[in-house]
Amino acid sequence: MSTMPGERPLRADARRNRDKLLTVATAAFAEHGIDASLEDIARQAGVGIGTLYRHFPTRDCLMESVYRHQVELLCDAADELVATMDPDAALETWMERFVEYVATKRGMAMALKSVIGKDSDLFAYVHGRIRTTVSMLLDNAVQAGAIRADVQAPDLLKALSGICLVSDQPGWQDQARRLVGLLHDGLRYRAPATT
């Protein structure tokens, strides 16, 4: 993981500890919610609680780092999808990943918004990064003639966020995939390659 602006680069062992903590914390927050035990996170990462607090002085700092890291992984994955799939398939696959990401991180995002505010630098960064990623995926699919040209990134993100609302129901993943498929079919309607 890269350092934040103004942070000193970490030694290799410290970076490994930080990365382990982020990995374990991501799983713990997903399984137990934002109140997951920090002591358990440190133990499962194979470090002491002092090491956790050196990297993340507060629970909110750890949640913010997990949230930022997960968004970076989600957005970075778009480059791999573009390199290995046709533009249409890359867009649909990323849309499915986005819905799953938002659905599973919604509680963390709401907790962070209550602590640091929805207009914070974190959320400005996250929203900008996601918009840039969606715009790139849309542009690629439009240039390939796979989807209609009048789709804008903010509109697609609002539609995808609406799909995330089904996540409070049992079996939501199957329903979300079907809804993403319907949305993606709508993007193809009147696409140059299909008319």
Tell me the overall shape. elongated
Q: What's the rounded overall pLDDT mean?
A: 87
Measured between the Cα atoms of the first and last residue, the distance is: 44 Å
CATH superfamily of the largest domain: Tetracycline Repressor, domain 2
Give the beta-strand count: 0
Please, could you describe this protein's structure?
By secondary structure, the protein is an all-alpha fold. The protein folds into 2 domains: 8-57, Arc Repressor Mutant, subunit A, CATH 1.10.10.60; 60-194, Tetracycline Repressor, domain 2 (Orthogonal Bundle). 73% of the residues lie in helices and 0% in strands. Helix 1 packs across helix 4 and helix 4 packs parallel to helix 6 (121-143). The longest helix is centred in the middle third of the chain and has 30 residues, at 87-116. The chain starts with 11 loop residues before the first helix and ends in a 7-residue tail after the last helix.
